[in-house]
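User: Hey, my collaborator sent me this sequence without any context and asked if I could get a structure. I don't really work with proteins. Can you help?
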Amino acid sequence: MERSIEIIHLEGQDYEMGLKQGTNFQSQIKELYQKLTSSDEFLASKPFIIPKFLYKKLATKISSSMIKASIKEHFPSQWQFLLGLSEGAEISMNKLLFLQAIDALGTQVFNYRIEETISSSFNNCSAVGVSGTRTDMGGVLMIKNWDGPEFLAEYTIFRNIKPSNGKRFGTIGSGVVGLEGINNGMNEKGLSIVYNYAYPREIGDEGVPAMILIREALEKCSSVKETIDLFKKYPRIGGANVMVADKDGDLAVLEVGPSNLEIRREGIEHEKHYLICTNHYLTPPMKDLEVPRDAVYNEDAAEAFKGKSVHKSSFIRYQNAHNILKNNAPEKISLDFLNTQIQSSHGPENTPSEFTFCNHGKEISTGFGVMLDVKNQNFFATLGKPCEGKMERLS
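Assistant: No problem. I've predicted the 3D structure and written it out in structure-token form, which is a compact way to encode the shape of the chain:
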């Protein structure tokens, strides 16, 4: 069913903006915390002898400690936003920090075997970016599908954020009710970023999750180069494939881990006029740090994931998009082509499944999609599956 998008407008000092978001979504933020900490995915990691209530309390405390110091030290403005968010939502800072940390903890895959043993992840996601040399607009075009549990998609919000500090740029983008970060967005200078999970074997002990780094980049950077420098500068936690483009036509994928970061500007056949990213790394240094390619969720994973390959869906979604762009794309690619032929794609057999770009999996499926016309600074989105909905222009 098609749902209209309501944009949340946040303007002013950081604390004031956080307070407004927290007040507006107080009940949903508390509900999100309860659902996440009661989910099979979360509880799959619980030791048998520890009661659920105690595990939830310990996990909340430990997770919050992994990101608290780094945010306070490096991003004081975002810390002020969190203080306002906590007060507005009437939720403890530890619980709120747990929600921020889930962005990184969701990339920690364990309980797997190598066909040996992974508590399952919350998200998949797929993205494509096309260089201006191959687009009808003459600038970079990007699409992204967010894939995750259906209950989590219900907490998606779209915000227009305008900090009163004149040194920071305004942004339009998607996020989650209880999170300050941005997972897909564009700023007033045209810098555009979309983000997928990736799965390093180790996510790190302390640092800043990707969504917070993305928001910081959108508020402070105007180019791909500046974004790369920002990501390299600060401590990170978790794994990510971050696609970045700017108005000058630069396009890159940042393959991100807690201690390593590689820049990718080509695909599996060394093509440079388009980039695809799903949930696996392609650069050799990052592939070496990744959960093994033949990893399979074991009997300790959440019930829905037992026996499934960790990477199979990611490989197939990537390959299907690659084949369409290689064999079926016109000389000049439009947003309409990207939306109808890839973003809404159900694979070569036209059979919707967990392996298609428009994901129709039973446990993990596409919850929303975005399209970005970087040169003209147009940001589009639809709630639900792109094959069923209509894109709305939000900027």
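In plain terms: The two ends are 23 Å apart (CA to CA). You can pass these tokens on to your collaborator as they are.
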